[in-house]
């Protein structure tokens, strides 16, 4: 049931990502609008995932699990009937609320049933396989649907899948709660949500316009102040939503930072990659989906094997090595052009997928296993929150970089292609008003070919910049893993545990804040 839940939660990610060019054309959306399509899903996940973890601990994980599935079904139904980009945002946001409920519950269910960290790694490997399987299936589903029906039908599958999983869960899942009494932390919830939303709004709007605009400055200031208020509330709360003492564990801190920067690069990469395949290579959704499948299929295949491999190799080795491979794949993609063949793309995509397949199962297992057992649900929710903050910032930051680079390079490329000045002004006005996709529909006469060629060259400049930034970010994640995820002497599972150097489980009392808890972790 945990694997089914995470499959449902992540299905909208690549299903929608690969369909962005089609959505842009159908609804006349700008690049900034497309960023909000992705972030309308990710923001509720990042803002609500910690609260969902507390709700599950207090009211029952089965109830929250089924509630999340219900939100997924409703959100997909709203987007399925969308007639405007705003309605797509609403549907995506409801799907995000559902995913926020599902993600911590799926890991908490595994931790509840499999308390042994060494044995749990195998099941978290299966969980990661299901997550990556969802990312792999999404482009294929979207490609087949868009080939034969309207783009809205990409939202059909989550409806019966969510409802069917709800019915099965009602019979096969038993209810569980945290053995430690918890209460809802409303000040922490409100300030965390406000900080995440304000930060992403500021980045997207600043990238689309200027970071000197008043609303952008206000949004970023609100993000900083709300983040500081969140930390203050959590330090003083008797029952915090995210116990900041968890960060005394180097393993938990390292896994949180690594997963955030990794997903920033990954989700941002998927965002710009889908636009490259659709706008530059002129591929339909199915063709683009088949190419993106190469990235997702290797992590899906490797998930279970890596779970077993963690018994013999340290998490630091697997995570840092995997992220270095991922960065290498991203850097090799800077050599692609408008006519790069599938074969030339495939080996580069495979390198990215291989690195992700090695790193991702270990990151999640490290976060959950680095704290005392009764804190596993909070650790899972916290790790997923950092994952989703990175996922929200990815399209926002890389989308802003892409747009800025394309708009800056386009005049020179059009001049070099011999596009008349009047046509150049028309193209730049269309890009400024309606985004990059608007150029394809302009009546430019004999200048159409040179103008589109100039747009492709400008887009490639932006793509290469985004790939370099993503690669550097992933390398930073590898460095954090190498520094913070130090193997603990005597830990046989290969998963770092709380407390840093010393005996396994040392510092459990310190992290939990309860002297009575001496359970090895």
Automatic annotation (TrEMBL):
<feature type="transmembrane region" description="Helical">
    <location>
        <begin position="216"/>
        <end position="233"/>
    </location>
</feature>
<feature type="transmembrane region" description="Helical">
    <location>
        <begin position="254"/>
        <end position="276"/>
    </location>
</feature>
<feature type="transmembrane region" description="Helical">
    <location>
        <begin position="153"/>
        <end position="174"/>
    </location>
</feature>
<keyword id="KW-0472">Membrane</keyword>
<feature type="transmembrane region" description="Helical">
    <location>
        <begin position="389"/>
        <end position="410"/>
    </location>
</feature>
<dbReference type="InterPro" id="IPR011701">
    <property type="entry name" value="MFS"/>
</dbReference>
<feature type="transmembrane region" description="Helical">
    <location>
        <begin position="462"/>
        <end position="485"/>
    </location>
</feature>
<feature type="transmembrane region" description="Helical">
    <location>
        <begin position="344"/>
        <end position="368"/>
    </location>
</feature>
<dbReference type="InterPro" id="IPR036259">
    <property type="entry name" value="MFS_trans_sf"/>
</dbReference>
<keyword id="KW-0812">Transmembrane</keyword>
<feature type="transmembrane region" description="Helical">
    <location>
        <begin position="68"/>
        <end position="86"/>
    </location>
</feature>
<feature type="transmembrane region" description="Helical">
    <location>
        <begin position="126"/>
        <end position="147"/>
    </location>
</feature>
<dbReference type="Pfam" id="PF07690">
    <property type="entry name" value="MFS_1"/>
</dbReference>
<feature type="transmembrane region" description="Helical">
    <location>
        <begin position="92"/>
        <end position="114"/>
    </location>
</feature>
<feature type="transmembrane region" description="Helical">
    <location>
        <begin position="35"/>
        <end position="56"/>
    </location>
</feature>
<feature type="transmembrane region" description="Helical">
    <location>
        <begin position="288"/>
        <end position="306"/>
    </location>
</feature>
<keyword id="KW-0813">Transport</keyword>
<feature type="transmembrane region" description="Helical">
    <location>
        <begin position="186"/>
        <end position="204"/>
    </location>
</feature>
<keyword id="KW-1133">Transmembrane helix</keyword>
<feature type="domain" description="Major facilitator superfamily (MFS) profile">
    <location>
        <begin position="1"/>
        <end position="489"/>
    </location>
</feature>
<keyword id="KW-0046">Antibiotic resistance</keyword>
<feature type="transmembrane region" description="Helical">
    <location>
        <begin position="318"/>
        <end position="338"/>
    </location>
</feature>
<protein>
    <submittedName>
        <fullName>MFS transporter</fullName>
    </submittedName>
</protein>
<feature type="region of interest" description="Disordered">
    <location>
        <begin position="495"/>
        <end position="521"/>
    </location>
</feature>
<dbReference type="InterPro" id="IPR020846">
    <property type="entry name" value="MFS_dom"/>
</dbReference>
